Amino acid sequence: MKNLEIPKIYSIKKTPKKTLENWFRLMTIGRAIDNKAPNYLKQAIGWSYHAPYAGHDGIQLAVGQHFEKNKDHIYLYYREMLTAIAAGMTSEEIILNGISKATDPSSGGRHMSNHFAKPEWNIHSVSSSTGNHTLHAVGTARAIKYYGEKAVAISGQGESSVSEGYVYEAITGADKEQLPVIFVVQDNGYGISVPKKDQTANRKVANNFSGFKNLRIIHCNGKDVFDSMNAMAEAKRFAIEESKPVFLQANCVRMGAHSNSDDHLLYRSSAERNYVIEYDPHAKFRRLLLRYNRFTEEELLEIEAAVKAEIKVSHKAAMNAPDPSPDSIYDFVIPEPFVSEKYPQGLHSEVGEKKKLITALNETLKAEFRHNPDTFIWGQDMANKDKGGIFNVSKGMQQEFGEKRVFNAPIAEDFIMGTANGMSRYNKKIRVVVEGAEFADYFWPAMEQYVDTSHDYWRSNGKFSPNITIRLASGGYIGGGMYHSQNIEGALVSIPGVRIVYPSFADDAAGLLRTAMRSEGLTMFMEPKALYLDPKAATVVPDDFEVPFGKARIRKEGDMLTIITYGNTTHLCLDAANKLQEEGINAEVIDLRSLIPLDEEAIINSVKKTNKVLLVHEDKVHGGFGGELSAIINEKAFEYLDAPIRRVGSPFTPVGFNRILEQAILPNADIIYKAAKDLISY
Amino acid sequence: MKKTAIIYSYNSQKSKKVAEKIIAAFGESNIEAINAEKLTKEVFENFSNFILSSPTWFDGELPNYWDEFVPDLEEMDLKGKTFTVFGLGNQKDYPENFCDAIGILVELLEECGAKVVGRTSLEGYNYESSRAEQDGLFVGLPLDQENQARLTNGRIESWVTQLIKEMD
After folding, report:
1. Chain A residue with minimal CA distance to B38?
2. Using CA atoms, how far apart are residues A637 and B131, in angstroms rounded to an integer?
3. Which end of chain B is more exposed for a tag (fewer CB within 10 A), N or C?
4. Is there a contact between A284 and B64 if contact means CB atoms under 8 Å apart?
5. Average pLDDT over residues A178-184
6. Is the pLDDT of residue A275 over 90?
């Protein structure tokens, strides 16, 4: 994009005195706390992580001053104390965050200090993972554009964050979608101790993006208040009026170390340290106010004294604020789900025509899109004429709901996941469904966003819940080899903050999907792709069916053995149980449907009845969910066991492509039958 | 030749050394040294010829003493006055912004109506881009004490000879 002029709206001579006074006051508050923060650590009060912002003063003031609360959306990185103050957060709120008090508006002491947020104003809670929120800002900008609001999303970050692949995904995605988002990249020359020559070939990282078609690049002196204010004013005007992204690179200096755990004397010469201090932006602004006779020394001293007094009061109030209670740790792990009044157990007795699992999913998605106009779905292969999803689960949706609600995503799984997070931040009505990857096997690039999204509700102290359903075509039995057959739930179940469901029949798939799409929170919805079209997974599906989370379904009652399973292996277990029945062995088959939350009651009740347990899943036995189930049963129902718990699953290998290899690896009905027989005869 | 002011930061040891060489080449009686750190707009009113020292800071910025003078400079009428700018830069470590500050300052001076002289050849330098480069010449004299210190004296001598011809 060609260089455009930056209008000079602000200057030392023309900016009204009242405005200058406010800026100086905000900057003085910021610096006073920035300088004071290490003392809290020295006195063992808290603030054990503090990344000083000194040297970024101009740009942070400018960004904060341009943020309109409850209208714009902003994501601050851990070095943005002044942005938070300039956006309206009080000195007391900053200190509450610093010393991790229960009343800290950012997280109630749950998240690391120096991560400033106020979600009720759209100052969003962010990760410590550098640049992670760049994707969130892009997702939020997508919502801003969709709902036609004249606002921007702003992502603040250091120049080293641009080395992260997901930051590139965010910027190229915003460029493609032409979204009103400003990436404010504060360049202080270092990623902790790594100089930027080790991060980027162009010293100015913005120039790495010079070929992007819709992205406007603006450079400014982030140490200078006026240059930063003018650049930010233009960035915001452009982003809103043109509905295009802006990469605003602000050259800053890091006057101190990276944080209080970093010793920059180890890698910076005294000459360099003095050089950056010489360009102290705060001192420069103060000099300008005096040089151009906008303030007298006495006036500035008066402001400084008032700030000192204010901080004293804030410090006292924050010190007296309550600490978080240890009892609160289970609060806000995941929001309360949608409650089904008609199907409280997730069971029905409807008769009629059976529907395949894929049809049940397709019809439920459509029904929910009709029910809630604020639903969106995207993913790779989501919509192109008659193609609707990699397996055509979403067929016909774009035709019915339009390309703004149903659309293709680039081949970038982290982008799919991260923008889902960002879009759902826009308001609580929004429900996002994503096909997280073409196959579950390809979800790994999105794990960075998945893990971070799992933290959001807890980390924000219940102030933000990512309302997202991730659909993943999962499992094998299709001759797909190790990139089209694997189960990944074993790796996911150790992460709190996500519901994980894995239905095996059409009605449960429909009911769980409806519940997921009506609930707040993050749900991982695993689809056994081998069963999409399989007649044995077809069932009658009530139009309004709902299956609550954490309600297992007894697929076959029995009293001699409990077989606990989910997904593809439910059908194999039923086949084995039917064969056992012919021999007079009455096995109970429990289809968990939900892994998290887990229906422990159904499991324990069955164990009490049968006294023997066989755990079956398609995923690897080693590290698989069966290990956790086994431990739970041992802890809670050991006295009822008459035999050791037995597990059946895949061996500790990838899934092979040749059918011979696949069959040797994935569990089958015969293996389950033999394991059951062994257990019965124990 | 009219009285000439040479303006540089007395705090900057490297610029000071170079400035002293220029003063010596010019002849001390023809030139008056002024501390850029304490610059007032009156200085610009009192002289007709100026030699400004503007090293490039960071990735292509004016040093703070010039940057803080810009609000005054922008409002000046410099018609009839002659300026030239030299500056220290580092073409090896900062090849994308080599001596940008010379270009930035010259642009500001020209916007105020000043006559700018002392353009020099690009020959002998190795960098990627520079705001000091215009129409195949540098708009002043770039000096690289980090990588080409041994060329500095020669560059100053020929530049001063040129300035004596070009300045009124």
Report:
1. A291
2. 77
3. C
4. yes
5. 98
6. no
Tokens (6 digits) for A262: 């970093």
**In Å, what is the CA distance from A296 to each residue of A31, A282, A416, A671?**
20, 16, 54, 87
How many residues make up chain A in this entry?
682
Q: In this structure, which CATH number among 3.40.390.30, 3.40.309.10, 1.10.10.10, 3.40.50.920 belongs to the domain A553-680?
A: 3.40.50.920
For the cut 90, the answer to whether the pLDDT of residue B128 exceeds it is: yes
Chain B CB contacts of A203 below 8 Å: 59, 94, 96-97
pLDDT interval class at A2 (50, 70, 90): low
What part of B 84-103 touches A (C-beta under 8 Å)?
A: 94, 96-97
Q: For residue range B13-23, list pLDDT tens digits in order.
A: 899 999 999 99
- Residue where the block lists tokens 């900062």: B94
Which CATH superfamily includes the segment(s) A17-319?
A: Thiamin diphosphate (ThDP)-binding fold, Pyr/PP domains (3.40.50.970)
B58 touching A, CB under 8 A? yes
Determine, for residues B61 and A221 on separate chains, whether the beta-carbon distance falls below 8 Å.
yes
Helix axes A625-637, A600-610, angle to 10 degrees: 60
In whole angstroms, what is the distance from residue A156 CA to residue A76 CA?
A: 5
Tell me where in chain A the CATH 3.40.50.970 domain(s) lie.
17-319, 355-540
Interface of chain A against chain B, CB under 8 Å? Answer: 11-13, 187, 202-204, 207, 221, 224, 251, 253, 278-279, 284, 287-288, 291-292
**Residues A599-638: tens digit of each pLDDT:** 999 999 999 999 999 999 999 999 999 999 999 999 999 9
Select the residue from B13, B59, B66, B128 to test the A interface by mutation, using most A Cβ atoms within 10 A: B59
Answer for the pair A99, A40: CB distance below 8 angstroms, yes or no: yes
pLDDT digits 0-9 by tens, A380-430: 999 988 898 889 999 999 999 999 999 999 999 999 999 999 999 999 999
Q: Mind listing the domains of chain B with CATH numbers? A: 4-166 (3.40.50.360)
